[in-house]
Amino acid sequence: MRFVVVLAALALLAGCGDDDETEAPASTPAQLAELTVTVDDGNGTKKTADISCSAPEDSDVCAALADIKPKTFEPIPGKQACTQQYGGPETATVNGTLNGEEIDAKFSRVNGCEIARWDAAKEVLGASG
């Protein structure tokens, strides 16, 4: 019986040592955003802006990018029902990185879903002029 007690005590002591492994801090992206925004007004005028943000405090556009939902840059699912309203001929592209994620988004105002996406990204799209 004494042997079992000694083995149990040794097993408990073996689990109480210092952990040599330390948890690495979570990596944060070096930049909040590195984006190129191009807006075409549909009448032949294109405006382009480069957005570079290290932190939300850098500018109003950077603050908007910090709050924007990633879903805003995703295309509308093909089977989603959208109201058939026309918001204008404008189109836009947004390319680069946001929070370390690649962004390659296209925007238009051809139906209610696309108008809603445009409105959700209006601070970013407005950066081009």
Question: Could you provide a short overview of the structure?
Answer:
With 129 residues, the protein is an alpha+beta fold. Helix content is 26%, strand content 25%. A hairpin with a 5-residue loop joins β1 and β2.
Description of the molecule:
The chain starts with a helix and ends with a helix. It is an alpha+beta fold and 129 residues long. A four-stranded antiparallel β-sheet has the order 2-1-3-4, covered by helices on one side. Helices cover 26% and strands 25% of the residues.
How many independent structural domains?
Answer: 1
What is the radius of gyration computed over CA atoms, rounded to a whole number of angstroms?
Answer: 26 Å
What proportion strand?
15-25%
Distance between the termini: 83 Å
Mean pLDDT value: 83
Count of DSSP-assigned helices: 4
Shape: globular
Order of H and E elements: HEEHEEHH
Q: Which helices and strands, and how do they pair?
A:
Blueprint: H1 2-14, E1 33-40, E2 46-53, H2 60-67, E3 91-98, E4 101-108, H3 112-120, H4 122-125
Descriptors:
Subtilisin Inhibitor, alpha+beta, 129 residues, disordered N terminus
